[in-house]
Automatic annotation (TrEMBL):
InterPro entries with a match to the protein in the record: RDD (IPR010432)
Protein's UniProt name: Putative RDD family membrane protein YckC
Highest taxon of the lineage: Bacteria
Ranges that cross the membrane: 24-49, 61-78, 113-134
GO cellular component, one term: membrane
Membrane topology: Multi-pass membrane protein
Localization per record: Membrane
């Protein structure tokens, strides 16, 4: 089952390790793009030889620098700036992430590029393919050393329905005493409501009862007798969000009033300016 990462923007990203074939296809796309640049380079270098006074040693040095930049410098720069998404990975919906699911940094991209020069280009991808076939996450040698792996990314930002207040619980929700909810419990309840229609009825009812029992510890009085778990969960989350918003609005009003009085002199003293 795919893992899920909740970003700071509230977007849920379903992730699963990319298959070896998907990684190979992404690398082939990158290899074709690299081959195009190599072709342009080998056309440009002889032309530079003819139009300049460089000797063969200088032109050879330029060629070596171009190879280092192309095979090591460019992958490091692209993976660092794009957070692990090269041209091929972007085309196939793949991304390189750390083992803990976080974005890759310069250190990770550097290790992957340096090792990848040997296992992908010098060995024509043979070692990378063999090692990737031997683990569940499809990691090559560079991924083991850098602590990374490739994932498939699918955004599900629109799959989470908005919170709602069931009409039959509106009166109870307005009068109930609601204590602050732990962030983990609130997130589990929110995810349950968005995924509930996809669960089998038995599992859906069981999970709903379990979450409702946990949420009931933070409300008083209990909901009316006979209330189903899902409407109760929805009412608690909706009321919790509404009260948080009201508290934030009151805080903003106080801050605005305090800021407006900063430039005002006390006791109705006229401003000398």
């Amino acid at each position: 089952m795919p893992d899920e990462i909740l970003t700071g923007e509230g977007v849920a990203l379903q992730i699963s390790p990319a298959s070896v074939l998907a990684r190979a296809a992404a690398w082939l796309i990158d290899a074709v793009a690299t081959a195009g640049v190599i072709l342009v380079t080998f056309i440009f270098v002889p032309l530079l030889w003819e139009l300049s006074d460089f000797d063969s040693a200088a032109l050879r040095a330029i060629l070596y620098v171009a190879i280092v930049v192309l095979f090591i410098g460019v992958p490091i720069t692209v993976e660092t700036l794009s957070r692990g998404r090269s041209l091929g990975k972007l085309a196939l919906g793949l991304q390189i992430v750390r083992d803990d699911g976080g974005p890759v940094r310069l250190r990770h991209a550097s290790v992957r590029a340096l090792v990848g020069f040997f296992e992908l280009w010098m060995l024509f991808g043979g070692l990378a393919f063999l090692v990737s076939m031997l683990n569940d996450r499809g990691k090559r040698v560079g991924d083991y050393l850098a602590g990374t792996y490739a994932i498939r990314v699918r955004s599900t930002a629109d799959a989470r329905p908005p919170l709602y207040l069931p009409a039959e619980l509106a009166g109870w929700a307005a009068l109930t005493d609601l204590r602050p909810l732990p962030s983990g419990l609130a997130l589990r309840a929110r995810q349950f409501l968005s995924r509930a229609p996809r669960f089998p009825p038995t599992i859906r009812h069981r999970l709903g009862l379990r979450l409702a029992a946990q949420l009931e510890l933070f409300v008083s009085p209990a909901p009316p007798w006979g209330t189903y778990p899902e409407p109760f969960i929805a009412a608690v989350l909706y009321e919790h969000r509404r009260r948080e918003q009201l508290a934030q609005d009151r805080l903003n009003q106080r801050l605005t009033a305090q800021l407006s009085g900063i430039n005002t002199l006390p006791y109705s003293i006229d401003d000398p300016s």
